[in-house]
Specification:
Blueprint lengths: L5 H20 L15 E4 L2 E4 L4 E7 L2 E6 L5 H9 L8 E3 L2 E5 L5 H38 L5 H34 L2
Antiparallel strand pairs: 1-2, 3-4, 4-6, 5-6
Helix pairs in contact: 1-3, 1-4, 3-4
């Protein structure tokens, strides 16, 4: 049965869920988190570079991030990248240190963030469905080639579907928890 391995499919589905968790970690709730700035990229040394490769992000207090830029010449570029990131942040540069105060989230902004979280979740569900399709295609090919009997193929197809359902349910749980965290005042 070349091309089909249930454990490998489950691992790929788990990676989609892990990726979703990472994306959701970057979504801002009420408190500061260094992971908030992970998606930010800076124009540095002639290419787009992740912020964590040109600076250190710390959380000195609940509503403040501090970005320590390693190369002073990049301070303005880092400040601009944070401002233009779409995260609704207004950084204040002080030499090599950039302070990023986190404004209080209003109801409208919280609703926007939950929509973003749902978009991330839908992308993860689509990824899981693509993985399911790959598994189903491999099983159908194995059945057609005679490597697998019809009953055995049906049993394996059921296992792939159960793994898919479990992954989608986990995605729904993760996004529901994040939505509750975002909406909490």
């Amino acid at each position: 049965m070349a091309g089909y391995d249930l454990d490998e499919l489950k691992t790929r589905m788990q990676k989609s869920i892990t990726s979703l968790r990472d994306e959701l970690a970057g979504l801002r709730t009420g408190r500061a988190s260094a992971s908030l700035l992970e998606p930010v990229t800076v124009d540095a040394y002639g290419s787009r570079t992740p912020l964590n490769q040109v600076a250190t992000v710390t959380v000195p207090e609940a509503r403040m991030l501090s970005v320590q830029v390693w190369d002073r010449s990049l301070a303005n570029a880092v400040e601009k990248a944070i401002r233009d990131s779409g995260l609704g942040l207004n950084p204040m540069g002080e030499g090599q240190i950039i302070r990023v105060p986190l404004p209080e989230l209003n109801e409208e902004r919280r609703r926007e963030l939950t929509k973003v979280a749902h978009n991330y979740a839908e992308a993860a569900r689509v990824a899981v469905r693509h993985i399911r399709r790959d598994g189903m295609d491999a099983l159908k090919k194995a059945e057609k080639d005679g490597d697998l009997g019809q009953d055995e193929a049906r049993g394996q197809i059921d296992l792939v579907q159960k793994a898919t359902d479990a992954s989608v349910a986990e995605i729904d749980q993760v996004v529901a928890a994040k939505e509750a965290e975002i909406m909490q005042v």
